[in-house]
Write a structure and sequence with these properties.
single chain; alpha/beta; Rossmann fold; 2-enoyl-CoA Hydratase, Chain A, domain 1; five-stranded parallel sheet; 15 helices
Length: 417
Amino acid sequence: MIAGQGSPGAALSAAQVRQIMAQGTPRELYAGRRVLVLTPDGTRTCPLPLLVQALREVVGPQAAKLDFMVALGTHPPLPQEKIQALYGLDAGARRGPWAGVELLNHRWDLADTSRRLGWLEEEEVFALSEGRLRERVPVDINRAVFNYDQIMILGPVFPHEVVGFSGGAKYLFPGVSTGEFLHFSHWLGAVITCAAIIGRKDTPVRRMLNRALEMVPVPVHGCCPVVSPQGQLCGLYAGPLQPAWSAAADLSARVHVVTKPRPYKVVLGRAPEMYDELWTAGKVMYKLEQVVADNGTLIIYGPHIKRVSRTWGEPIQRIGYHVRDYFLAEMARFADIPRGVLAHSTHVKGLGSFSRGQERPRIEVVLATGISPQECQRINLGYLDPAALRLGDFQGREDQGVLFVDRAGEVLYRLAG
């Protein structure tokens, strides 16, 4: 059984949040036990200060130990002061009720971070991927997990380009797993394509994550919030991970999906400040690709974006951005490139074809960011000077085939039918 409530127009109070967490998290899960809570970093809209405080108030007084870890995947590690800011903690809180709480990073970048749980064998991968991939995949997890008696996942649910909807087991794999699992799962998503996966609950990638979850020897509980485009906490579901995540994904499908009657020649999505590199600002493309007309233009607008990726910039500079079939045609040529990087490349470039050496993207993707025109040309994306753009020129023109989307990247736009 899960506890929870939510609707597209709701705005849950702190008291309601505590009540849901208390009702959906039985005392026997945490009383006298060591509890690790997994959370997102700052690249998701989420009222984490409210949520982590409520969870600490419910669980902390009776738990033997309560710690929090940022499930980074392969995002850059955060210094302590940034984790404190992420959770809304000041120096006083760290000396008071939070004094004994550890705030941890998933240090995916350190060789001794992980421990192997087992393998997804070739035949199982072939079946779960619906015949797309046949390979043996290692399933690793941050070894810190074994220092606890209970894992709690506290992360929001949105439509997601790789897995369908974010959240749930994704906070373990690849959230606190290794690059190997991330690269495998992201490449599987890329082979299927973003357009075929995003906004769907049951996908081959989700099934793969759920299979890996079965290998985790520590019990896992879920507190799954849904945040409206206006930034309100419009839903929260607490209980066993899978049903809690499923309820949140159902609400997300009502909150985070906009249907349009026709495609647009030009779509401009303004990337919010939380996307400070193209690696995350690519979400603007993922959420808007489907409403761009064939041979149309998608503009990612974000003058604050100065780089492609802190972590993966070098390999992206080497390969550029291309459609999926460009890579599938010559996989041996790209054998030294992590497949998660290939997946990011093709997700940003979008649907298209590659035949007889000719690449034909369905749409043109243009950056109006702080990334230079020379770099845009080098990585095979279009360029516009953000200083020369007037956002007002793109607003209120849907009847002319022009769509403007503010704070793009979390709401999925689809065509009717």
